[in-house]
Amino acid sequence: MTPDHLRTTLTDRMTEQGSKWLAGACASVAAEPGVVRGLFPLVGRRCGRGPLDPADPHGWTVDDAARSLLLAALPLTGAALLEEIGELYRTGDAAERRAVLRALPLLPVGDGALPLVRDALRTNDTRLVAAALGDYATDHLDAETYRQGVLKCVFTGIPLSALPGLPGRADAEMARMMAAFAHERRAAGRTVPDDIAPFLALFPDVTVPGPRDLQDVSTATTATSSTTDRPSPREA
């Protein structure tokens, strides 16, 4: 996603009133960065919350896209930008935190926003987990954390198709962990997600899982939440 692509897509998903509000909000943020903290929580009510693509329930929403444009309008870089988006993430509700994660590829933050990604991966909110493993994580997240995040997606029911960068980050170690997960599910008499078999077919040399593999699965699937979903009184 790029800002231009988001604007084009939003044209068909927002009312004229919502579009005017967003344009004004972006102009205000560009002129005075501090106003973003008051505008960010209002986006869902002003612009809408539906999916950008109704066929993709794990993908971008209208408010994700609109909030991302607000962040892209910030005339900040470096530590100042990281401080601003970090504050929006920490004080926001689930939708606001998700939008910060979605926006990361649009922002000049380098590796500086990785703590936000890691925090989201520790939650049990599937929308946050899916957003955390977007294009920014594809480019910046270390291999082990990325693998554990993918396994958590499978464990929590997030389809692998929701991870745009997975084809480029998949490796034999990830396949080994996935095979161990499938083995554990079958041993417990539980179903295995349909998208595991096609993934494992890409790595035919992966061996039968052993004790170490099963320990890796346990580590990924028993992670506790570091944050909870908080309702935002500002959008009530």
UniProtKB/TrEMBL annotation:
Region (Disordered) residue spans: 209-236
Low complexity compositional bias, start-end: 218-228
Name of the protein this chain belongs to: Sugar phosphate isomerase
